[in-house]
Amino acid sequence: MKTTPRTTRLRHRFGVLAVLLPALALLATARALAVIEWEAGAEKGGMRQPIWLEPFTISGDTGRLDPMSKAGENILLDDLLLSGHFRVDGPVAADLGPRDVWVARSKGPDLTAVVIGRLESGPEGVRFVGRVLAHPSEKLIFERQYPVAKEIRPVMHAFCDDIVLHLTGEAGIARTRIACICAASKSREVLVVDYDGHGPKLVTKDNSANLAPAWSPVDPMIAYTSFKRGEADLYAVNPETGQTFDVSHYPGIDSAPAWSPDGRLLAVTLAIKSNPDIYLIRRNGEIVERLTFDPAIDTSPCFSPTGRQIAFTSSRLGSPQLFIMDSDGLNVTRLPIPHTYTDSPAWSPRAEGTGRIAYAARLGAAFDIFVTTPDGGSVTQLTFGQGSNENPRWAPDGRHIVFSSTRGGKRGIYVMLADGSNQRRLTPADRDCFYPTWSPRPAGK
Amino acid sequence: MRSLKLVVIPFACLALIAAGCGGKKEPVPPDEPPAAPPVDTPPVTPPQTETEPPRVEPASLNLESVYFDYDRYELREDARATLANNAKQLESNSGAKVSVEGHCDERGTTEYNLALGEKRAQAARDYLVNYGIAADRLTTVSFGEERPADPGQDESAWAKNRRAAFVVK
Fold first, then answer.
1. A355 in Cβ contact with A335 (< 8 Å)
2. Is B42 touching A (CB cutoff 8 A)?
3. For the whole model, what pTM was predicted?
4. A271 part of contact set with chain B, CB < 8 Å
5. What are phi and psi of B107, to 5 degrees?
6. Which of A211, A174, A210, A209 is nearest to A194 (CA)?
């Protein structure tokens, strides 16, 4: 499952290599990018590069830098583990006790890289120098200096994304965020947290029931359903500024927003003609096209990564089931999966290969999360009856899935790798949170 | 078990050449999302204003809720009987305007339940319109699973929550 994209990427890189070979010959000390190919380790949660994280060193204002350094080590360790790309060895990992890490205290022969960090304070302020060395050659894979404005946390996220990029060739997600709905005293507001659960912040103050947030794939804008004017209408909020926008107020429900990959259009559920159907609308609510016409319920649309198809839920066969249509509404086909009550389709943003669709299927009284190929040929169960597990949504790397689960009593937001491993709660146990959506990566960085 | 092949691919040469071997350029992430287009600022739509409804004594109407089977929006026999009684009351209170509210139990996803509540409200409204109540006296709104009549989590509570309710405006 994971070897296919990796092979594709390698082929691509060899193509680049062929072009660069003459230039390489001129370079006495070429800085190298290590790309690791894996053959074994296909067990669940496997295929992870073993890397070594050295404790950070400091230079300058010890009193200030020492706690910052310790905090930074832990944040970076967490980021590296959450990425799902690495097994982390070394004293930093060992000191934190039993976690999902290998706690070797000496560098084993299978290590691929060593991560080194140094915090320095000087007249120009504090900076962090991050380096990654190949193991055992100790050749420099990359080095970067990061100014530390106030907190070490965003610096560690940026360093982790650089490590992921240089060691795997993939863009990381350590600077992404997750929005969800959180129940306040008598309302439900949109909450935004960092991808690791840090820094929760309410971004709406609508004092009403808000539902179904969907983060634009291209900019800081979250579309959502709100009852703030008495019925279900569509709004959007900029999570940076808290500014809200009206999107659509048609008669009947306006709900289930899903962005097109270019962020210009929304597929939504409207009931203008008294029946819940899927429509394409612009950001200002203007209707582009009605896509479904069946007298049953059609809702919960999501776009394929190319924007050419839409998966959605329909009750046209009786119970809610998943269907796929072209994005002009033609060629509607049922997704041939064995479950008879399925909802909440979410199409992986990775366009390579055949693509994957995550969804929730009701088994008995509760839902569990599954992933399938768009032809329904391969179905993998990711959660197994720990509470009800609903509303899967993909991270922009297509490697992680965020979802809601009642396994802790109240509903909470959890993340996992797309093979079901590394399941981890993001929101506090005493908060009722559900309906997650993942932000894109920050633009231009 | 775990066998690795380390393929070292020098990549920084172009960047180094371009920067006179001194600069350090980060490679562009391969699948960064496209540059953000300017945000269309949607025009603010004013809230829909209702014309002042004629005064009606709510006590003069006793419109009962109708109930549905799980995941269904078809009217049951008992629902038809209730709706016929509600329609008679609305006939003799010709000034009354009514909001038909569709509700669901908590099972199923929120989005699906919003749509299901819409279907239930429409089914009840359609019955009243077919009976002869003027369509402009009836509006519909779906609350999905947001406003349960009974907060319980068993079948007796769920049965009370799968309903269309009538609110005199």
1. no
2. yes
3. 0.82
4. yes
5. -75, 155
6. A174
